[in-house]
Amino acid sequence: MSGRRRAGAANSTECQLLKLSDLIPGLGRRQPERPDSDGPAPKRAGAAFAARLTFESVERRYGDQMALAGVSLDMAPGEILCLLGPSGCGKTTLLRIASGIEKPSAGRVLISGREVAGPSRFVPPEQRHVGLMFQDFALFPHLTILDNVAFGLKLLPRPEAYREARQVLARVGMLRHAEKYPHVLSGGEQQRVALARAIVPRPAVMLMDEPFSGLDVHLRERLQEETVAILRETRATSIIVTHHPEEAMRLADRIAVMRRGRLVQVGRARDLHRNPADLFVARLFSEINEVPWTVEGGALRTPVGTFSVPDIAEGEPAVLCLRQRAIALVAPGQGLPARVVRVKPLGDAALLDLAVEGFEGLLRARIRESELPESDSEVAVRIDPDRVLVFPADEADPPAPAAGGA
Ligand code: ADP
Ligand code: MG
Question: Which residues touch 379 (CB under 8 Å, ≥6 apart)?
Fold first, then answer.
């Protein structure tokens, strides 16, 4: 990297050190929430105001299909929420409804307490102060990077729009590409431009649909951190859609797990890890061994131990979930006999795959490296009942094999 340049120059490293609020006067100041008004968006979208975003029992039907089957969610102003769920569960539909490019079939959306979509009201997208970043970035191929970013500032006089667009391009480290066209940029660069275009009108709410999905792992992590830093500066209340639990845990204040048009659980990463609402969430946020078994006499009497299950009916299929750290090695004769099938040292810790009589699968335990036994040796294990979870079996989803091959 060459010598220092003045702020505003096309030196991406230096620009990344600048805060958006330094570049755009007034941005960093806390401003009052926008009073309830039906008026058009201000000419200058300069008011980065803190907005509460609320979904109330939002439904969206396509013919017979319920893409959203009653979603309720309340986001605090400035909160960053990651929306996580498998393909087709309704994530994009939820963002489209929040942004106003689609209408709910039932329910309401409110921004700072004001209904923007509901039975009696529909505020069009351009009046919602909502930024939407599409999964494929959707840059305009025939416009330069600068014009792509200035596009969202159509109501400003051109010189002013370009000035703001340049400032935001500098913030994302892309100013030196301002006169280029999108097709010459890499995926990561296009992502930065799309981000710049979405934030330049200073939206109160920012919706990002899988913004990192097309990027390679190293670039992804860096862009994630930069993106979250920028969202924090703008104080936009943000939803980031992702497929990756680790990404959600790293980025979000709260995580919303969605499945088949519903929110299964909303909470902090720690809560989802410690107290998953169901097997689906447990699989996403914890490394678990699954022992499928049937409830008999109010308990699961499995080869790895008996665990009472007061909440699941007699004769119903259930899944006993053992966290890897729930399985500890103890002195021979002091616990359940097991045979070490495979050991995998990881530095401080090690993974053990264990065979237990009566259970077809393998149990994977995570132990301290110093406790590592020989492969193929006979050991005894104890299962910590506090680290065991039991859920009703998940009919839609066959159980994952215990202790996968990797
Ligand atoms: P996700 O973003 O989580 O992958 P989507 O919100 O795109 O899921 O879609 C949710 C469900 O709604 C899917 O089954 C999808 O096929 C259906 N869907 C989405 N948009 C339409 C549409 N315009 N017409 C019909 N079905 C749709
Ligand atoms: Mg989608």
Answer: 329, 332, 337, 338, 339, 340, 354, 373
Q: Are 392 and 314 in contact (CB under 8 A)?
A: no
Q: How far is the CA of 66 from the centre of ligand 2 (A)?
A: 15
Residues 172-189: tens digit of each pLDDT: 899 999 999 999 999 889
Q: How far is the CA of 116 from the centre of ligand 2 (A)?
A: 22
Please state, in angstroms and rounded to a whole number, the distance separating the CA atoms of residues 150 and 115.
Answer: 29
Other beta carbons within 10 angstroms of residue 82's beta carbon come to 24
pTM of the model: 0.82
Name the token pair of 155. Answer: 């109501």
User: Containing H/E element for 221?
Assistant: helix 217-234
- What's the CA-to-centroid distance between 406 and ligand 1, angstroms? 33
* φ and ψ at residue 15, rounded to 5 degrees: -65, -35
* Res 33 pLDDT > 90: no
Q: Which amino acid is at 24?
A: I
pLDDT in tens, 350-396: 999 999 998 999 999 999 988 888 888 899 999 998 889 999 997 66
37 lines ligand 1 (CB under 6 A): no
